[in-house]
Amino acid sequence: MANNEDLQQLGEDGVEQEEQQGQQELNRRTLEVRDHSQAILCLSPTPHADRLLTASKDNQLRLWDFRQLGTLQVLKAPHFTIGHIGSMGRGKCHAEMSADARFVAAGAADGQVFVWDLQAAPGSAAAVSQLKHHKEAAVAAGWSGNCFQLVTADKAGGVAFWNCQDV
């Protein structure tokens, strides 16, 4: 028959084993993917719970799929350089997908705002629109719930409101 010390030892060992199993399980589910070639400046959740939007200093945005653990789509455009604030590897920006998952918007260093239409044929003229207003780098973009309005902000504190029904 086990005494109290033996039971206490068994209990502590059981907890320790459970913690080790939990850590091993967590380690099995961890995966690192490096599809961007430079620092990621933005991680933005999308309306689809299984997807994530990233923006990087490599001037690409990527739509990720959590189930496949990989890139679904790469968004880039000629003359697009990601707009961001901060320096020395601490840059930040905000790109966002519309609630209907049709559009992605991101600001550019030259003050333009690029809007990708995910339903258009890749490479077609309709796939990317450029909105021009900001005098400084456009660093943030956000969509209204009805997906008709876009608001963007620049490095100098300016805010622009866009009607995007015809984009």
UniProtKB/TrEMBL annotation:
Region of interest (Disordered), ranges: 1-30
Lineage, uppermost ranks: Eukaryota, Viridiplantae, Chlorophyta, core chlorophytes, Chlorophyceae
UniProt keyword terms in alphabetical order: Nucleus, Repeat, WD repeat
A Pfam short name: WD40
Protein name, entry field: Anaphase-promoting complex subunit 4 WD40 domain-containing protein
InterPro entries (UniProt xref): WD40/YVTN_repeat-like_dom_sf, WD40_repeat_CS, WD40_repeat_dom_sf, WD40_rpt
WD repeats: 33-74
Annotated Gene3D superfamilies: YVTN repeat-like/Quinoprotein amine dehydrogenase (2.130.10.10)
Keyword Repeat in record: yes
